[in-house]
Amino acid sequence: MSMMDRLAVIGFPIEHSVSPAMHTAAIELLGLDLRYDRVAVPPQDLESFVSGLRRGGWRGVNVTVPHKEAVAGLVDRLSPESRAIGAVNTVVVDAGGRLAGHNTDAAGFIRALMEAAGFDPAGAGVTLLGAGGAARAVLWALGNAGARQVRLFNRDPERAERLAAESGAWGLQTAVLVAPWNEPELSRSLDQADLLVNATSAGMASNESLLPGEMLRPNSLVVDLVYNPRPTRLLREASARGCRVLDGLPMLVHQGAAAFQLWTGRPAPVSTMMAAAERALGA
Ligand code: NDP
């Protein structure tokens, strides 16, 4: 080992990312010779930044908004899940300087569901809100974990239709259905679902919820991918209604833990990473 290898999260803007705090805590705990920074990469600089990763000194990067889809087209190979999802949140630089794209959001979501909420999606009926990058990863993850049925709702219905059609090529046993976004349809879907996932950005840094709390079915599990604020209005109303709730922080930590393992080959110290993420969020 000569020079300290670099890691970073890239995005635009990137100031508010808690990934540097989370990964630096893990690196320090394990005493690894690595450094993790945040790097603001404007869209017009993305291609040259990614090429530069091949020139040495880098172990990998995390990728966040708005670059996850573009990076999938810039790496040398894609893992099966990042190819299906069409987005990369983790790049691993191998010894020869070649770049592998991965998507750990999917695995992070399932581990959060199983470990933090004790919920096994096998056989479950799911209502999924959203059809953006996060919803794609959640749908892929739920399908591969054996969910029975997923009903997709998105403000732009064509985007949901496209996602459902594309997921037909993923080889899932899951029935993926698209429903129009209106109260009767949402209500019917929630009545039949064991799990509701909000994978839209609604409720982020706001007091907005896309659903009236009375629509939620008591005893179902409600997951909000949004982790700022904690809890969101959706989760507050869900708790009041008697639902079990899971916010977005365990998924964030588990996607980071999976990335850490890809870069280092070491098991990630999940509870240390969770504590660092909570501190960075000021929680
Ligand atoms: P995208 O920009 O790809 O998609 C945004 C989605 O939110 C679209 O479905 C969009 O609908 C919908 N949306 C936004 N605002 C509204 C609104 N006011 N009403 C209804 N729908 C709305 O974002 P991502 O998929 O990448 O991220 C979505 C959220 O998930 C973000 O808050 C992000 O922070 C969070 N996330 C959390 C992770 C975690 O680890 N906890 C990991 C990844 C993401 P439309 O198509 O109609 O525009």
Q: Overall pLDDT, averaged?
A: 96
- Percent strand equals 15-25%
Between the first and last Cα atoms, what is the distance in angstroms?
37 Å
Give the CA-based shape.
Answer: globular
Number of strands: 12
**SSE pattern:** EHEHEHEHEEHEHEHEHEEHEHH
Helix content: 25-40%
Q: Please work out how many helical segments DSSP would assign.
A: 11
Q: Which radius of gyration do the C-alpha atoms yield?
A: 19 Å
How do the strands line up in the largest sheet? 2-1-3-5-6-4
- Protein structure class: alpha/beta
Biggest sheet architecture: 6 strands, mixed
Low-confidence stretches: none
The molecules bound to the chains, other than polymers, are:
NADPH dihydro-nicotinamide-adenine-dinucleotide phosphate
Protein architecture, described:
The chain is of the alpha/beta class. The chain has eleven helices and twelve strands. A hairpin with a 5-residue loop joins strand 5 and strand 6 (99-102). It is globular, with a radius of gyration of 19 Å. NADPH dihydro-nicotinamide-adenine-dinucleotide phosphate (NDP) is lined by residues 65, 105, 108, 130-135, 154-156, 159, 199-202, 204, 210, 225-227, 248, 251-252, 255.
Task: For this entry, give a set of tags.
283 residues, alpha/beta, binds NADPH dihydro-nicotinamide-adenine-dinucleotide phosphate
